[in-house]
């Protein structure tokens, strides 16, 4: 059993709600649906990062659903950009260019579910000035001028709370099987914001009855004596897993297994510190570029096309984590590229980005995703 009291509260609420077809539908939950996301391996894909308005309703966008399902993807992290002007801004908003319309998001959620793919709705805060969302940070409580305090964090968190409420209602009415309330907000994740995050999580629970998670930066979870207390209010903790898997280009899958092996125990202890909360790799990936596995998250480095390196990273990660009882799977970063980065296409031999379509990593994923479910259900339900 998961020891998190918030997870147990879901079970109690589910017991009083009419049965449906096993998914969250029209505001109702099957008795088991609330735990489904916590009981099976997430064979997932990240989809729609920086998708412009209209993409999810386009023939090209809708066609991706069938392609993912054909590969064996059973979970999708469906991303919606929520914008703010700069990393110092305190107001979040839907943008006419970068934020998909609600109705197109709802339509593609239904399309995924029709194909048997479960949806983790994942609104993502993005900055118009092109800063990484992890840089959002503010002074807290400064009063160099006596009596004058500017509540930057309170204002920003209230705007975030409103966004979380909006997409939480969407997740509930469309039957999303999980709701991720944020991702890699490194400056905001820290313990000094425990009370502010508690209000955000409480707001999400007001409108959404399914499991709630957040995609945390590794230093927040792994480099502190104790992780921030607010994470315990979640039902699962996602983490962006981009650990170095190689010391030089051309590493084999076996070499990557040994390089990554210490991270298994590190993450197991992190789950233990969180009271047994399961951990999901909310993002993980590696570019198909020479040396890509050295710093798998790096998107700016150049080099020749090296698809085997990407495939070896995926193979090594799956070998190490697949049967870990506290680990609930991963969401590969990412399915499609919404931006044209010229250096990804400098080698005519192939695309050196994170995507896997038409590359050896796709067959590695297909093989692992075809594996039968383990006894994880019995351990977590």
Give a quick precis of the structure.
This protein has 11 helices and 8 strands. With 381 residues, the protein is α/β, with parallel strands linked by helices.
Helix-strand layout with pairing:
Elements: H1 5-15, H2 33-36, E1 42-47, H3 59-71, E2 75-84, H4 102-114, E3 118-127, H5 152-174, E4 178-183, H6 194-207, E5 212-216, H7 218-222, E6 236-241, H8 253-273, E7 279-284, H9 307-321, E8 327-332, H10 360-369, H11 376-380
Parallel strand pairs: 1-2, 1-8, 2-3, 3-4, 4-5, 5-6, 6-7, 7-8
Helix pairs in contact: 5-6, 8-9, 9-10
Protein model, in words:
This protein is of the alpha/beta class and 381 residues long. It has a domain at 5-138 and 149-245 and 274-286 and 329-335: Glycosidases (TIM Barrel, Alpha-Beta Barrel), CATH 3.20.20. It contains 11 helices and 8 strands. Strands 1-2-3-4-5-6-7-8 form an 8-stranded parallel β-barrel, surrounded by 4 helices. Helix 9 links the parallel strand 7 and strand 8 (327-332). The radius of gyration is 20 Å and the shape is globular.
């Amino acid at each position: 059993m998961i020891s998190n009291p918030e997870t147990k509260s879901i079970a109690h609420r589910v017991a009083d709600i009419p049965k449906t077809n096993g998914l969250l539908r029209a505001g109702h939950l099957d008795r088991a649906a609330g735990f489904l996301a916590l009981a099976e391996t997430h064979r997932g894909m990240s989809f729609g990062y920086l998708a412009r308005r209209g993409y999810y309703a386009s023939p090209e966008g809708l066609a991706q659903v069938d392609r993912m399902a054909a590969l064996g993807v059973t979970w999708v992290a469906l991303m919606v950009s929520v914008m703010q002007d700069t990393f110092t801004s305190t107001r979040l908003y839907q943008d006419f260019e970068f934020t998909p319309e609600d109705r197109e998001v709802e339509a593609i959620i239904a399309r995924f579910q029709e194909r048997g793919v479960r949806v983790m709705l994942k609104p993502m805060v993005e900055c118009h000035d092109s800063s990484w969302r992890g840089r959002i940070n503010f002074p807290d409580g400064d009063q160099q001028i006596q009596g004058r305090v500017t509540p930057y964090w309170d204002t920003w968190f209230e705007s975030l709370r409103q966004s979380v409420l909006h997409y939480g209602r969407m997740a509930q009415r469309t039957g999303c099987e999980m709701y991720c309330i944020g991702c890699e907000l490194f400056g905001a994740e820290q313990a000094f914001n425990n009370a502010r995050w508690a209000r955000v999580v409480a707001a999400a629970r007001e409108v959404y009855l399914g499991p709630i998670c957040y995609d945390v930066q590794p230093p927040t979870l792994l480099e502190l004596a104790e992780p921030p207390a607010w994470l315990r209010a979640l039902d699962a903790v996602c983490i962006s897993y981009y650990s170095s898997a190689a010391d030089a280009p051309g590493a084999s899958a076996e070499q990557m297994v040994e390089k990554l092996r210490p991270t298994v125990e590190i993450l197991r202890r992190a789950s233990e510190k969180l009271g047994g909360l399961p951990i999901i790799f909310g993002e993980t990936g590696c570019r198909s570029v020479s040396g890509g596995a050295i710093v798998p998250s790096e998107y700016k480095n150049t080099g020749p096309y090296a698809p085997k390196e990407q495939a070896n990273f995926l193979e090594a990660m799956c070998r190490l984590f697949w049967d870990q009882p506290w680990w609930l799977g991963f969401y590969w970063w990412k399915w499609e590229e919404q931006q044209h980065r010229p250096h990804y296409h400098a080698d005519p031999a192939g695309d050196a980005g994170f995507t896997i379509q038409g590359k050896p990593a796709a067959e590695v994923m297909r093989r692992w995703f075809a594996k039968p479910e383990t006894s994880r259900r019995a351990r977590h339900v």
